[in-house]
Model the fold of this input.
Amino acid sequence: MMKIKIAKTAGFCFGVDRGVKIVYDLIDKGKKVCTLGPIIHNNWVVDDLSSKGVRIVDSPKDVQKGETLVIRSHGVVPCVYEEISNMNIDMADATCPFVKKIHDIVYKESKNGSIVLIAGDSKHPEVEGIKGYCNGKAYIFSSVKDLEFLLLKHKNFVENSLILVAQTTFNLQLWKKCYDIVKKLCTNVKIFDTICNATSVRQEEAALLSNESDLVVVVGGRHSSNTRKLFDVCKNRCKTILIESASEIYNYSFSPIPLNIGITAGASTPAHIIKEVHDIMSEKMNNAIDNNSEEMSFAELFEQSEQQAVYKVGKKIKGVVTAISKGEIQVDIGGKQSGFIPASEFSADLSVKPEDVVRKGDELDLIVTKISDQDGIVTLSKKRYDAEKGYEFIVEAKEEDKTLSGKITDSVRGGVLALVDSVKVFIPISQLSDKRVENVDDFIGKNVDFKIIEVNPSKRRAVGSVRRLLNELKKQETEKFWENLKVGDVYSGTVKSLTDYGAFVDLGGVDGMVHITELSWSKIKHPSEVVNVGDKVEVQVKDLDKEKHRISLSYRKSEEDPWRIFTENYSVGQVMDVKIVSLTQFGAFAEIILGVDGLIHISQISNERISKVSDSLSVGQAVKVKIIDIDYDNKRISLSIRALLEDDKKQEEDENAKAVENIEGVEIQTADKEDKGDSEINEVNELSEVNYQGEADKEIELTESKESTEVNEEEIQQKSESVELEEACKE
Done:
């Protein structure tokens, strides 16, 4: 008949468990470890670590060479971190994330000029650490009386900017009273509910456990703040004892023998000690019952059991289904009274029909919601039991940052409700997606994954966020993206936005920029000439800065590189037609092919000296040029018009010289050449007669002939045909 119940939340909380694991992991790695103060308020754990060589030090100055210093979950003041850094000590920080959150709050708010009120034990290391992060005035109180005294003494609190925070293990009921006082008296106050969720749930569970029990055993260090709070919660409801180890149970004798025993434990109590307490308590109570059973009559035992079976509103019991109808489910709760579950109290999901999911003989976990002594009927709720159990799961998910999945069942003001394990979690519109939500009704009936971002133990409410989960997933994808990213990689992306200097491309959660010069091989005035927002593009990583998370991209294709096309098809000495695209003081730039320009230096425009380029050339003019040099390293091309003029001049000079040579030394042709015409023969005869005159006449004629051939260069350039030159010589 005796029942021993262990609180579900008894034992290590998240922060303590994390801190202890850090120390044991360091030991497993062969590290020499010391902790700044006891790692937790539990002698067994401290002694076990000591046996493994872990030392407790009071200051960083006590750390020996080669040791790793562990900061315990309570945290420390900023100057300690500075001292550790200056001494170059190897450190592992086991500060509880919930404590760090308070550090961030008081640091930020006090830096902005707010006065800080801290609810907690002024001598507790956690509170000392919190105060150390305050940049201005900070006051500590541990009771309603202390708070009222502070508000009376410092009347400026009412008008000044003020914030209220609490030690993570502060008494929940006391916090609610302090909350109401400050909210009522101070008009310019921000209140941050910083009591650890595990602490809140642990204290609420202790209150329920003590209501159902004849005796509650609280296990934990006597110096532990959260353990003392559990003891205070339970002792006002039933007989309560506080022990640090299982062996202390033997120091107590219990009369009358408790039949309902509850066991809870502080956040620093290992699970194996809780189990040991349960086993010893069970053995001790069973022996006591066996020893006293002969002295008690059956009637007395029955009466005692009946007294323990008295139902209370809020009590958790088990019931066996005896009948099912559309309106209710009847259950046997093991007493004189009858129990029934209204259909509305069966499930939070109204679409679930009891007759579809339960059968006669099924055992259900229930909570008493109403007792009718006259009718002998106990009204029960499975929905509320599931909700309480589910809420514990929600709190655990918050502490461990788990991802939950739920079905959106209702739309309410400001958001929607998602059903998770019989608990309705509120998701605000702003947290429903990482994009703007126009109509929340579109989400009704859909399953969504989300994170719990806030819980309210006093109201048993929780707030979820799809947006936070999506952002975390994006962050993970982004980190993975940056790990694998390297110059030269090719990605497909979407043009996200355009600016005067380039285009931003979304590569899948990470943005890169294509500079305007990397959009096209030809010159453009604006990116919109090449791409538009929403275009799917293939880009290549040109450069990246992983520290600043900046990516430079290129949209230009190597096979379309105009310089590559030029070098494959053009060489020095080649002549081509080009178009003048711009003029400068030192020359003119001409487009050879699209994207490749060459320079015609002012000295290469004409044979004559010119003072202004515009006197000879104009933009848009087509000219013939010759490539006189290619600088492959710097991608520069030199062109010349003058080179073509000099080529023409040389050619003309060569032709003139050849013509003169033919006149002076013409070959005499004989009359027996059959292939000559009459006109050619006559011409030869005339020349023969000249050549065969007397020596004096011959010399004169030759002299005159030579003089006639000595024409200036300008006259030679004007004669394009050799026949005209010959006629001029004859004359």
